[in-house]
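call fold(seq) -> C-alpha cells
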Amino acid sequence: MIYPVPQKNNLNGNIIEIDSIKLSGDYTEKAEKILASYDIDVSDNGFNVEIKFVNSRKTTYIEEICKLCNEKYFITADENKVLIEAATKRGAFRAVNTLAKLINKNELKTGVLEDYPLFAKRGYIEGFYGDTWEQSKRLSVMSLMAKYGMNTFYYAPKDDDYHREKWRELYPEKELGELKNLFDYATENELDFCWSIGPGLTYKYTSEEDFDLLINKIRNVYSIGVRNFGLLLDDIPADFQYEEDSKAFDSTVDAHIYLVNKTYNALKDFDSSINLTVCPTQYFGDENGYYISKFGSSIPADVSLFWTGAEICSRVQTVREADSFMRSTCHKPLYWDNFPVNDAEMFQEMHIGALIGRDKDLYKHCEGIISNVMEYAECSKIPLMTIADYLWNPDAYNSDKSLDNAHDEMLGENKDLFFYFAEHLGVSCLNRHASAFMSETFEKINFQRAIGEKEKSLENFRNYIAKCRECLNLISDTSVPLFEEMQKWVKKFSMCCDLMDAIYAVQENPDEEKKAYLADLLRKYNSDAVVLTGFCLRENAEKTLK
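ret:
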C-alpha cells in the first residue's frame, strides 16, 4: 500500500515489470526530476514502458466537494504504456509522485487510478517558540511533505527576529536571499508559500508610520516573488499599550479590525492577486465569543481566518464546531492545528504519534488544516506524514497504519526495533496514554509470576529488556539526525533500561541491597521531568519493592 492512500485505485491487473522508462508529452522535465528523487532512471533508448502526459479537462472537478481542483489526476496503465492525465503542473506533480511510489513498492499494475485531495489547504506552519530550523532542514521537510501531498507552507517562526521582535526592520540581504531560496524551493515542489509577520507586541494602531513600515516590510518580501501573506495577532497583550490607541478605539477588537482591513486594502491596491491570512488574538475557545464573532464578521470574506479549536492544543476538531464558527464569523475556519508542536509547557514531551481526533467529514466544513511543527525538524516528519495522509484522504485514513508507514519511511529495516522507544512518545494534547506494549508485557510477566511460573516470567522479562537495550544502542547513534534530536528522551530511555534491570534483579533475588539500589534508581527516574513511559513502569518498580 502507498500513502497517502489514493481515492480510487483500480490498478488491480497484472504487475508491470519495468526495466527502463521513456517520458513523452507535457511536464516531462519535471517528471524526470521527481522520478530521480525516487532513484528511478529515465532513458530514451531501450525502454519497455512509456509514460505519457496528456492535458485533460476531466481532472478539474471533484464531485464530493463540488469544487474545481488543480491537483486531480488519472493514471491508466497497461503492459507497456502509462498514461497520466492532468490539467495542471500541480496535478502532474502529484501523479508522478504516486507513480514513483507504486513502482518502488512493486504495486504498479494494469488498470486505472483516479486520485485527488479532499482538504483544500493541507500544510504546516513553522510557528513554534524555540530555535528556528536550519535552512537545510526546512528544505528536507518541505521536500517530504510535497511528496506526501501537502500544498501549503506558512513561514512564521516566533524566534525569527524579523518576523516578530524586529518586524519594522527589512530583512538584511543575506536573510532575504535565504527566504527567496526557500520560496523558490516551495514553488518548485508545488507548495504555496505564505510569509507571515507578527507586529502586535509593539504595533501602534494609530500610527501611520507603523502602518507604512508594515506595508514596506511586506513589499520587501513581495519583491522575491511571494504573493501569500499572513498577519498574526496571536500571543499579544489583550489591552492597549499606547494611550493614543485606547483613546481612538473602544476595544482591541476594533483596532484589530481596523488594521486588518487597512492592510487588506493596501495589499489589494498594489496587487489584486495577493492572498491574506489573519490570526486573531482570540484564536481558540468559544467560537461564538464577542471578540471572534465581531472580528470575523467585520473583515473581508476572502481573508483566511486561523482558529485552533476549543483549546490552544485541541484534542478534537469537529464538524459541529466548524459550522458554529462559520455562523459566528462568516468564515470557514482555517485550522492552525497545534499538533505536533511541543513548545511552552509541553517542552518535556516528544510528539511523534499519529494524528487522531479529527472528524472525517471536516474537509467539507473548513478551509483546511495547517499543522504547527516542533523545533525538532526530523522528529516532526513522523507525525506530519500521518497528517498529510489524513488531509488527502480522510475516509481511508488509518492512524496505526499511517504511523507504521511513517516509521518505515524514516527508519527502514530498523522500524521494528525503534518501536520499543517510539511507543513511549505518543503523549500529546491528542492522547495522554503511552507505553501500551510495555504495559502488556508487564501484565504477562506479572501473571506468570502470580501463577508460580517464575522462570518463564523472568525469561520473558529478560528478552524484553534485551530488545530495549538493542533499541537503545540504535537510537544512541547521534550521527543519525532523527536520533540526534531525540537525545533528551534517549537519556531518559537509558534510565528506563537501567530501572528495568534493577527490577529484574530484585525479582530474581530480592535481597535488601538490590532493593535499595532499585529504590534509588526509581527516585532518580521520577525526578527527571522528561516525559517517557506510562504509569506501568513506576507501578511495577513499586510492586517489586513491596
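The chain is about 45% helix and 15% strand.
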